[in-house]
Amino acid sequence: MFHQVGVNVEHRNYLRFLWLEGGDIEKRPEEFRMKVHLFGETSSPACANFALKSAADAYENTHGKAAADFVRREFYVDDGLKSVTTPEEALELIETRVNLCEQSGFRLHKFIANNKDVLQAQAIPPSERAKDVQNVKVLSEGFPVERTLGVQWCVESDTFQFRVHFSDKPPTRRGIMSSVSSIFDPLGLVSPVLLVGKQILQSLCRDGYAWDDPIPDETRAEWEKWRLDVCDLVSLKIRRCYKPESFSSIQSAELHHFSDASAEGCGQCSYLKLIDDTGSVGTTLVMGKSRVTPSKPVTIPRLELTAAVTSVKVSTFLSRELEYKNVKHFFYTDSKVVLGYIANDSKRFHVFVANRVQKIRDSTTPDEWRHIDTKMNPADPASRGLSAGALIDCKLWWKGPAFLQTADAPPRNDEPAELSSTDPEVKKASVFNVEAHAPTFPSTLERFNYFSSWFRLRRTVAVCLRYIERLKRRIKGESATPPDAYSPITVDELCLAEQRILHLTQQQAFPEEIRVLNKQDGGSLDIQRQSTKPLSKGSPLRTLDPILDEKGLLRVGGRIKQASVSEDVKHLIVLPRRSHPTELLIEHYHSQSCHAGRGITLNNIRQAGFWILGARAAVASHTWKCVTCRKLRGAPCGQKMAELPADRLNPSPPFTYSAVDFFGPFLIKDGRKEMKRWGVLFSCMASRAVHIETANSLSTDSFLNAYRRFTCRRGPVRQLRSDRGTNFVGGRSELDDALAEMNQPKICRELLQDGCDWVTFNMNVPSASHMAGAWERMIRSIRSALSALLHRNGCQLDDELLRTLMIEAEAIVNSRPLTYVDTKEPDVPEPLSPNQLLTLKGKVVLPPPGVFVQQDLYSRRRWRRVQLLANQFWSRWKSEYFSSLQERKKWTKSRRNIVKDDIVLIIDDNAPRCHWQLARVIETFPSLDGYIRKVKLQTSRSILERPIHKVVLLLDRDTPPRSQETEPA
């Protein structure tokens, strides 16, 4: 068939191929193009079908509508099937269809029929018959079994049969799926048997077996049992013709659709009921469907409703395919809940039920639905499954319930289906009291709020005024004068629009002042008028001595009338501070000033002839909100200084809560080579003592070695703070990996005996050096001490000398006083320093056991003397040093918290300001006091964490963006 359909010339290049003459690969291949469609080409079936149906349309007038309809409806690609009543009709059908197809270039052949007279007629030569019936001897002996559209058709008995042949496939998910799918049953006549195989396959999927995994023995036994059982379908024969042989003329046809669902599956079956003129009844199974239930749990009412929807879809399909006229449809279900859903007109359902009920109501009416007892429902096998032998003997499946065998109408529902008030699918009714209001329309000034540009506002008002003027002329019958509706706005029109905007703004802001001034001089506006009666004391214009000009605008009267300048300079137009047009005006002149400061912007506004009440504050407020100004000059965000952490406020053994940082490098000599060394500073958060180790590099291994030396000398650490150095981050990740491999319970038990928890890291935000001030300041002190020591010992160092200097610097810094001491007072105790505690450190336990007094200094028991000195250190630490931590030296004021979706500028100390990145806040991290000091930012390339001191706020989340373009004047 495909070779009978040509390819357009412009499309043949897509079907090029190379041809080797005689199969000789040594010869040059020849290039050809296909002129017809190919087998295996994706577009071939569609093009062939289109050509065949086009031929039917073209020759319908010549060969009749019946022949054309046969080509349109009865062909599936290149196979045509048709059933008629008599052999004469069949021969006429063959003759007309053959002529129609031959005229359009298609040849009909491979004919087969269940009547020998038709096959032996002259209209069908032996060469045009199907291959198995070309021999006359075969016709005399009987018809063979033919494969028709994939279905086995026994021509002799005119019945459908099933061919069951399982190849040797392994008992896996893949093999089971292939075997179940090999039984071709397009009408679902044996769907209850196939449902059992599908349930076995679904159980394997639910248990997580892969495609080629071996299945468990229990499932394998079920599978083998099903395979043997399916072979019984070979003996099943289903009559092809719906109309019984004894029937005469058909008087009526009905389709009865049954649906059911269970926990294993949901199914449907449809029956055609025919009644002839003698009252005889014939019922035949037309179509059935079975599906397994979803893997996720679904309620039985929902499954029943899904099966009902399937019945409606089958009904629509059969109505289109069956050629009976005026077919009545009846639908049955054994679920009263589903009948209640379908008959409901007053309640609303949730989405799942509502959508499916809508599909049912679109194609059926509630009167077509009936309730049937479960025992009489023929769809029950389709929802639960049956063995092949049981299905063959199931009269209920093949013929339907007993009432279908009578000519009487099917029974109707006696009781109306009602929905339960506790049904979870029914939406709960909500009652709302609605108060109707008359529509309100914004005033002219409220409409000004829609604009974000002074120029656009003036231009829009100018267009409106032009339109109003044209309407006035049209009403008066005058001809329209230029400018027309589409000509550009002129400068005069912009000035007139500006006057109108200013007039409306002043009328809203200063109605009382304008009323007082209008009373002067009889209300005439041809001269400037100044109030002879002073304004009220509460008037904001009292000090300006205002006047009204001839245009009705409120201006400053002032006291410079004698100046030799223009009237617009002497008498500026007065505007209120809090008004949207005023904000647009300030923004306009601020942009024209290239975002200069407050003074320049204010001068430009005054030179333009405007006097804004509270102008300095208004301009300052605008420049503070201006995004461009924030980009150019905005200060970093800040927040009130945070509370000190607990590890700095609570007494604890030295270095229990510590911080770490690197400093350096220092050049040393190793023979002739110069090498770098770094200092590793460990600072006690409570006593402010320091411990210094040396590191050969900034690597993670070097840091871990220094950390091990530190803990061996100073004891275990409960918490270690650091910045975001890569060596510390690497150290933290390696410690975490090591911890994961260690025996955690054993470590905890051993450390718990010593009263210590396992070490945890607490890293600062990137670029937040101020958050590490407690130990960054120690680095400065150490550098000062090292500078003096290096000056004394010379600059040529080796490893031994560097370590010595580091320890000397450590001793110097640990001897520093923590509190202020007045040296003029003779009885002042020795200054409090970290060394007072370090020199006593053995295994300190706080609070120390017992009560110690001054006499313990002279005690023979040395440990009591040590505990007394430690007690004295912590007592003085609380009374002298602890109270000094109260004061906030800076950042004393609470500010607005950065919130999610704020737009900020990320400060980069290594790039000019114009190259700083824009970012959006995607997450905030509140401190214990509720203030935000750390944020997570999203840039165009990455996601970062930064302290608020490293960002500049550009745009609040709740502030709509304003246009920052400079508009033309």
Question: Could you characterize the architecture of this molecule?
Answer:
GO terms for molecular function: nucleic acid binding. InterPro entries: DUF5641 (IPR040676), Retrotrans_Pao (IPR008042), RNaseH-like_sf (IPR012337), RNaseH_sf (IPR036397). Residues 861-954 form the DUF5641 domain. This protein is of the alpha+beta class. The chain has 7 domains: 1-131, no CATH class; 142-240; 243-403, 2-Layer Sandwich (Nucleotidyltransferase, domain 5), CATH 3.30.420; 444-508, no CATH class; 652-821 and 833-838, Nucleotidyltransferase, domain 5; 854-885; 888-969, SH3 type barrels (Roll). 37% of the residues lie in helices and 16% in strands. The protein contains 31 helices and 28 strands. The strands form 8 sheets. Strands 11-10-9-12-13 form a 5-stranded mixed β-sheet. Helix 17 (454-476) crosses helix 18 and helix 21 packs across helix 23 (615-625). The radius of gyration is 49 Å and the shape is extended. The two termini are 76 Å apart.
Share of helix among residues? Answer: 25-40%
- Here the CATH topology of the largest domain equals Nucleotidyltransferase, domain 5
Strand order of the largest sheet: 11-10-9-12-13
For the biggest sheet, the summary is:
5 strands, mixed
The structural domain count equals 7
Can you count the beta strands? 28
Distance between the termini: 76 Å
Strand content: 15-25%
Please give the CATH class of the largest domain.
Alpha Beta
Which blocks of ≥5 consecutive residues have pLDDT under 50?
Answer: 522-527, 738-744, 750-761, 841-863, 963-969
- Write down the Rg: 49 Å
Structural class: alpha+beta
The number of helical runs is 31
According to CATH, the homologous superfamily of the largest domain is Ribonuclease H-like superfamily/Ribonuclease H
Query: What is the 3D form?
Result: extended
